[in-house]
TrEMBL record:
It comes from Aedes albopictus. Residues 274-286 have a biased composition (Acidic residues). Residues 262-306 are annotated as: Disordered. This is Amine oxidase domain-containing protein. Keywords: Cytoplasm, FAD, Flavoprotein, Oxidoreductase.
Length: 568
């Protein structure tokens, strides 16, 4: 079962408009603002607009539901989250504020007992003090990696990635241990923790993550908060404030046509020609908005002509042929989709600097495996089993498909208890993408084999149900979340977030960008998406003269500070 299946806890399609029905009924197609995507960024933009008196907008959502990468389903009596899982941090987190405001967080926070068991492939359990020793060393190494960004240190020669740096530190640490078996055991724990880190970061291997940029992500204080009713329960209060007719579902966007006036590259015979000519704009000498420049290689003869007779700045062409017009568009399309379709989705095409930044950033795959059982079989005190796989070197000359077929499951670093009869495993990178293409029966059988091997118990039952996510295969996500790859930087995130203006003297941009991939400190998080959506809406709301803008209090509120202490 993929994340699009099952009973979704997001708002149902019946509560909103459908793109085909909108077209057939001849409903409104021209708006002041069109928001593309009803994930957290899009819903945040819409809420900010409506709170400030702007209801002339529409959200175009490709799926038949809202929520994007936030979705929950029922598994037996349990609700499970197939996408976003935790509120990351309390202080200054707008998602925590929103959850508190709507009673989605239990003030009485009774921590569940957390006992982790680590085992080797032959079923031997690691002494807890050894596990704790290596975990503490690993956290120390990871913090040192973050310091390169925060303190502007220079790394050792030829060390460019987080993976390379942690492996170097681990090697130096292990050199102090003489006993081979003790050294090897600790090395397996380091490797397991690095696999875990790939799921946190959203990559195939930590060798892909830029060492100098790791510290650019800002961690909010207060730990990870789980909503008792599931993360997807936060969608309802956001949707309840929006007019149902403003959300148009099952409406994939094919092309975003936007007006742009810019000078033709100097190689053209008529070097002063203007694209999308407008007499009022020709004399403008306000050239500080460089986003209006024509990228090298653009040819005015092949530029988009769809807007020649259109009074709006932007025209949205949907896959079913429906056309919408708007003065402004907030594009919250995920980075994975921009990577796949960004070259062709915009007409004229996006500026070259933006395309290069889209290409530079990493957008990895992280999937979940849920195993549901009829009865409990794990020791009641154990909450997680870590798998210390023996390292397998991939032959550079071997076929990658064959390697993945034989070893994909070795990327599963642990199974943790969601409840006594429900286990959750995580898998990332190319192994996750491979898993998405095999049957859930095969996944269930392999997971049963793993549990029996590591727990040394041949009688562990097969699950009655196996649910796997498939974020890479989903056409409207094409992956999970953003990370900064080796050679990329925060500047790339800022480049993607940069709005596009139709003319140099235009006061408000025609195309704005939102989503977790556009927040330079909170990339990969729901609160990053939320804040980026609100920022985009605020740009459009800001008047030429100072005027009151309604903003939620989510940074220095005393109540959240007190609640943060209580939850700590």
């Amino acid at each position: 079962m993929s994340e699009e299946n099952g009973k979704s806890t997001a708002a149902s399609a019946s509560s909103s408009s459908d793109c085909a029905a909108t077209a057939a009924a001849g409903k409104k197609r021209k708006y002041k603002v069109i928001i593309i995507g009803a994930g957290m960024a899009g819903l945040s933009s819409a809420n900010h607009l409506i709170k400030n008196g702007c209801s002339d907008f529409a959200i175009l959502e490709a799926r038949n539901r809202v929520g994007g990468r936030i979705i929950g389903i029922e598994m037996g009596s349990q609700k499970v989250e197939l996408g976003a899982n935790w509120i990351h941090g309390v202080l200054g987190n707008p998602m925590f504020e929103l959850a508190m405001q709507h009673g989605l967080i239990s003030i009485i926070n009774i921590p569940k007992p957390h006992k982790v068991v680590a085992a080797t492939e032959d079923g031997k359990q690691v002494p807890f003090q050894v596990l704790q020793e290596i975990y503490e060393a690993y956290v120390c190494f990871l913090r040192r990696c973050e310091e390169y960004f925060l303190c502007q240190y220079l790394p050792p020669p030829d060390i460019h990635s987080v993976g390379e740096h942690i492996n170097l530190e681990a090697e130096l640490y292990l050199n102090n241990i003489d006993d081979y078996k003790e050294k090897h055991l600790r090395k397996l724990i380091f490797e397991c923790l690095l696999k875990r880190e790939t799921c946190i970061t959203g990559c195939h291997t930590m060798d892909e993550i830029d060492l100098l940029e790791l510290g650019s992500y800002t961690e909010l204080q207060g730990g990870n908060i789980v909503l008792p009713s599931g993360y997807s329960s936060i969608l309802k209060p956001l949707c309840d404030t929006l007019p149902k007719e403003n959300i148009i579902l099952s409406c994939p966007v094919k092309t975003i046509h936007w007006k742009r006036k810019g000078r033709v590259p100097s190689g053209n015979n008529n070097s002063d020609a203007i694209l999308e000519e407008d007499e009022d704009d020709i004399d403008s000498d306000d050239s500080d908005k460089t986003v209006t420049e024509v990228p090298i290689g653009d040819n005015p003869s092949t530029s988009d002509n769809s807007l020649k007779h259109c009074t709006s700045n932007v025209q949205i062409e949907c896959e079913n042929g429906t056309i919408f017009e708007a003065d402004h568009v907030i594009c919250s399309i995920p980075l994975g989709v921009l990577k796949k379709h960004g070259q062709t989705m915009f007409a004229p095409s996006l500026p070259q600097y933006k395309l290069e930044s889209i290409d530079s950033l990493l957008y990895g795959t992280v999937d979940k495996i849920f195993l549901e059982y009829d009865r409990p079989f794990l020791n009641a005190k154990v909450s997680e089993i870590m798998f210390l796989w023996e390292h397998v070197d991939s032959d550079p000359n071997a076929d990658e498909e064959e390697y993945l077929k034989a070893n994909w499951y070795k990327k599963i670093y642990s199974f943790s208890k969601v409840s006594d009869t429900l286990l959750l495993g995580w898998i990332s990178g190319r192994e996750a993408e491979y898993m998405e293409n095999i049957s859930h029966e095969v996944v269930a059988e392999k997971c049963t084999e793993i549990l029996r091997r590591f727990l040394k118990d041949p009688f562990i039952p097969k699950p009655k149900r196996c649910v796997c996510t498939s974020w890479s295969k989903q056409p409207y996500s094409c992956g999970s979340y953003t990370a900064i790859a080796v050679g990329a930087s925060q500047d790339d995130i800022d480049n993607i977030a940069q709005p596009l203006y139709s003319s140099p003297h235009q006061s408000k941009p025609s195309v704005l960008f939102a989503g977790e991939h556009t927040h330079s400190n909170f990339y990969s998080t729901v609160h990053g998406a939320y804040l980026s959506g609100r920022t985009a809406a605020q740009i459009l709301l800001t008047p030429d003269s100072p005027q009151e803008i309604v903003m939620e209090s989510d940074t220095s509120d005393l109540s959240s500070w007190i609640q943060g202490i209580a939850l700590e």
